[in-house]
Write a structure and sequence with these properties.
- By secondary structure, the protein is mostly helical.
- The protein has a domain at 23-50.
- 58% of the residues lie in helices and 0% in strands.
- The protein contains three helices and no strands.
- It is globular, with a radius of gyration of 12 Å.
- It starts with 5 loop residues before the first helix and ends in a 6-residue tail after the last helix.
Length: 55
């Protein structure tokens, strides 16, 4: 299975933000890999609890 290092994902997200891209889609394998990262899990859980979270 190909893995994506967290630093590589962070770099890609910063690039997307600079290009004003608001949403990305990830597959179930990458999502499962990311869910093994505690920082990612906390961000996902906290964003679901924020009222200002938008789709």
């Amino acid at each position: 299975m190909v893995t994506l290092p967290t630093h590589q994902l962070e770099r890609a997200l910063k690039q997307y933000q600079s290009e004003n891209i608001k949403m990305i889609k990830v597959g179930y394998k990458l999502y499962a890999q990311l869910m093994s990262d505690l920082d990612f899990v906390n961000e996902v859980m906290n964003s679901a609890l924020r009222q200002d979270h938008s789709e």
